[in-house]
Amino acid sequence: MTTAGTGTYAPNTATGTVTGAPAFTGTGAVGDFTTIPSSCASSVISKTTQCFAEATDWPDVSTWLSWECLSSQAYAQMLSGWNEKKPNTPQEAADVINLLYTTSQQADLDPRVVLSVVMQESVGFVQPGHGDNGASSGLFQVQLQGATSCDALPHGQCPTSSILAMVQEGLYGHTGTSNPQTPGLLAHYQQEQSSWPLTLRAFNTGSVPDRNNLTQITLTGCNGKKYFAGTQTYVSQMANRMVGGLIAGTHQFTCMLDGTADDYPSLGNGCNA
């Protein structure tokens, strides 16, 4: 989930494109992701889940899994389904991997992190449903009225153009007078001066409430109840994905800097939910 803020790009819901995004060229050496190399098997790369609650805890890039490991594990997960979600077809899964890689390179973002965000948000499924009480949709679960979605289409018929639009919406965000402005991953990355832990906190929550404690998110009141605007463990889960502590679609554990539990529900689309 990404929440409202400022943005610089806008989706064109009539054409399924993102206004202001770089022209898509489809170039880049994405590599073979259809077979998991023996060196990337879950039994080999899986590590004990760790708690990365502070920005200084973020694992060094030298410890991250390779693109080959992450993409092949993700591809296999997209085909197998997860938690009663509809699996992708081989073509849809290949489109997700290819378009994430090439679009990330165009935006000068590490495709490993971008892919891991998608696996966290939707497990890479092109028909993931709408999270946050119906407010979020697509591969990145962006909060945008009229965001690109294949959920209403017959299973297995999500076109490449729609998958590209979902990727662009996640990376470049949108602006508009009728819709709330939502920044994409790139805007947060630039705002946070290329810090991935701060970028991911902002992408999930809309801001960075405490730059020293990345489990801190906005706790707000709504109709007498308390809600979190975001997921407290989001940054730590993403760090674990990068180093093998979380593989593909599995993402559940507790990690709080202050020792509290993640026991408040998400606000979703607000008090009107």
With strands numbered from the N-terminus, the spatial order across the biggest sheet is 1-2
Number of helices: 8
Strand content: 5-15%
Structure class: mainly alpha
Sheet having the most strands: 2 strands, antiparallel
Mean pLDDT: 78
Distance between the termini: 16 Å
Order of helices and strands: EEHHHHEEHHHEEH
The proportion of residues forming helix, as a percent range, comes to 25-40%
**Number of separate strands:** 6
Radius of gyration: 17 Å
Ranges where pLDDT stays below 50 over 5 or more residues in a row are: 1-20, 259-273
| Principal-axis shape | globular
Summarize the model shown:
This protein has 8 helices and 6 strands. The chain has 273 residues and is mostly helical. The longest helix is centred in the middle third of the chain and has 17 residues, at 90-106.
Description of the molecule:
The chain is mainly alpha-helical. Helices cover 32% and strands 7% of the residues. The chain has 8 helices and 6 strands. It has helices at residues 42-45, 67-80, 90-106, 111-122, 160-172, 185-191, 196-205, 234-243, and strands at 10-12, 17-19, 136-137, 142-143, 218-222, 225-229. The strands form 3 sheets. A two-stranded antiparallel ribbon has the order 1-2. A two-stranded antiparallel ribbon has the order 3-4. The protein has a two-stranded antiparallel sheet with strand order 5-6. Helix 2 (67-80) packs antiparallel against helix 3. The longest helix is centred in the middle third of the chain and has 17 residues, at 90-106. It is globular, with a radius of gyration of 17 Å. It starts with 9 loop residues before the first strand and ends in a 30-residue tail after the last helix. Mean pLDDT is 78; it is low at 1-20 and 259-273.
